[in-house]
Amino acid sequence: MFIDYQKAALIIVDVQNDFCPAYTSGGKSNPEGALAVAGGGEVCAPLNAVAKDFAGRKGKVIATQDWHPWKHASFASAYPDGKVGDFIALGSVQSQILWIDHCVQGSHGARFHDDLDLDPADLIIRKGANPLLDSYSAFFENDRQTTTGLDGYLKAFSISTVFLGGLATDYCVFYSAMDALRLRYKTYIFTDAVRGVDYPSGSVEQALDAMEVAGVGMIKTSDILRR
Ligand code: VGL
Ligand code: ZN
């Protein structure tokens, strides 16, 4: 597979403590994240390798960070009778799942996983800061209209191809990949560098199928590194 790195970007989605099981790094132990995804921390090693490779070849490296204010509208705790897993209507968003509190601005859970190497990153995009609107995609908030600025950044550098990895396969990675296609980027996900919530059960497989049908390329990090 030929990659023109100067027109390519790696987007590392939400590799944050709250999406990861308990882990130890550099002798320091970190508790299980509030919304831990099975095997979440396992995406660090392959993503670090690709990020280093991209930076060395003048590709862009972007990381996104879920960054919610306290009592965010996607948190069950923001409603008197809210239960985690309930679906509600939220503004123009027909069905918003209510989540457990996670990635609260400034909290340990909102920090990136200690093993994620951010030295190669050109840009960090924070999303989900609007108290009344959730934001899964790296490109748009869940109203599908409010931009995060990422599209403008990528266009400013004439980026035409994006590669995605991170958390979670069935939410932020999925919405980011579908938006990337909608914005006409050639879009790939690294299947060995994503992990999913799988809630509701089956949503990871559904997301992978939907992405593949829509035209997202499914590749492994080794497909581009072993060259
Ligand atoms: C995510 C649920 C809520 C994600 C973020 O990063 O996939 N999932 N907020
Ligand atoms: Zn969130």
CATH class: Alpha Beta
Estimate the mean pLDDT confidence: 97
What is the beta-strand fraction?
15-25%
User: Any idea what the shape is?
Assistant: globular
Strand order of the largest sheet: 7-4-1-8-9-10
CATH topology tier name? Rossmann fold
Task: Write a short abstract of this structure.
The chain is an alpha/beta fold and 227 residues long.
Report what the structure shows.
The chain contains 5 helices and 10 strands, in the order βββαββββαβαβαβα. It has one domain: Rossmann fold, CATH 3.40.50.850. By secondary structure, the chain is α/β, with parallel strands linked by helices. Strands 7-4-1-8-9-10 form a 6-stranded parallel β-sheet, with helices on both faces. It has a two-stranded antiparallel sheet with strand order 2-3. It is 22% helix and 23% strand. Bound molecules: pyrazine-2-carboxylic acid (VGL) and zinc ion. Zinc ion binds next to loops. The site of zinc ion has 6 residues, from loops.
SSE layout and pairings?
Layout: E1 8-13, E2 23-25, E3 28-30, H1 44-56, E4 60-66, E5 87-90, E6 93-97, E7 123-127, H2 150-156, E8 161-167, H3 169-182, E9 186-195, H4 203-214, E10 217-219, H5 221-225
Parallel strand pairs: 1-4, 1-8, 4-7, 8-9, 9-10
Antiparallel strand pairs: 2-3, 5-6
Helix pairs in contact: 3-4
The protein binds pyrazine-2-carboxylic acid and zinc ion.
Residues 66, 68, 74, 102-103, 128 line the site of zinc ion.
